[in-house]
Amino acid sequence: MIRATALYPQGGKFDADYYVQKHMPLVAEKCGAALVKWEYDQGVAGGMPGQPAPYVAAGHMYFNSLPEMMQAMGPNIGVILADIPNFTDQQPTMQISEIVKG
Q: What is the pTM for the complete model shown?
């Protein structure tokens, strides 16, 4: 299984309600059945006591395989990226991972 994670850094605007209610449903609609599930995490703390979370939020999208993810996201990436300014003024850091054990 493949997990694509978008990490949104602290320090700018981030509208969690828009992200959960509009952006991720848009992603789900565009990706169709290739998107197995999605999750939203809200940052609450860093690694040391009293340290702030480095990211305000993380969005996780799960796909059965990298080719399926690329096929689903490829033709829709422009629409998905164009929606980002509607909920944040920060550039997300992306990571694509293979889930080895889950």
A: 0.92
